[in-house]
TrEMBL record:
Belongs to the helicase family. InterPro entries: DNA_helicase_pif1-like_DEAD, P-loop_NTPase. Keywords: ATP-binding, DNA damage, DNA recombination, DNA repair, Helicase, Hydrolase, Nucleotide-binding. It is an enzyme of class 5 (isomerase). Coiled coil: none annotated. The keyword Zinc does not apply. The lineage of its organism: Eukaryota, Metazoa, Ecdysozoa, Arthropoda, Chelicerata. Pfam families: PIF1. PANTHER family: ATP-DEPENDENT DNA HELICASE, PTHR10492. It comes from the Eukaryota. This is ATP-dependent DNA helicase. It catalyses: ATP + H2O = ADP + phosphate + H(+).
Amino acid sequence: MEEQSKANANIEKLNSEQRYALYKVIHAIYEYQTDMPKCFYLDGPAGTGKTFVYSTLLHAVRGKGDQAIAVASTGIAATFLSGGRTAHSIFKIPLTLNATSTCNLKPNTSEAKILLDAKVIVWDEAPMTHVHAFLAVDRLLKDLTKCDEPFGGKIILLGGDFRQILPVILRGSRSLTVSSCIKKHRLWSDFFVMKLTENMRAFDSEREFASWLLHVGEGESREKIQLPPFCYPEIQYPVQQLFSDIDFKTVTE
């Protein structure tokens, strides 16, 4: 009842874009038809409420007594999800990856049962994860479910912002970094993309800056990128003023 109450309270606060994304996934979970997608991607810049949608979905599914798995590409991001853990922890993704890597999770274990029982898998900060990790999870779920559909036919919701950090490739070129994203793999064609555009975090006075950030992130700024004036400190030596008890001349010498 507590989970359902949290879900109901959150649903009342959703805007139209968030509500659409939530119910699109819920319908796939509980009212699935053959023409519905099973793989979803929630796209949106920072502040558009992606995490709020994830939390509402998790509460709604768990409120019905069903299993919902929440993972993220980083430990910090996982802490913002109810019951969240890192993707590597849940799926036992190997640290060293290649195109044929497999997860180190064995069938007929308690960890495997959790995955089998899950009605939905939510994966935050997906753009940071190398496509080889997704392929390993895809193989794992297909093996566990004995189903050849993408991710074993499981309902999966990925989310994040490709305008932010992509997978970190050691000594990788720009093209190699981009090609390591799931968006550049054939697996991406199985995903139904939902977009959030309304910034729920920025105050009215900050919306111009939020719009500017989005403009830059979309690659629409062809001119030299300059920070707005209010991004500059009014004081001439901010470091010295912040650490006024330090004698910088002595430090320099």
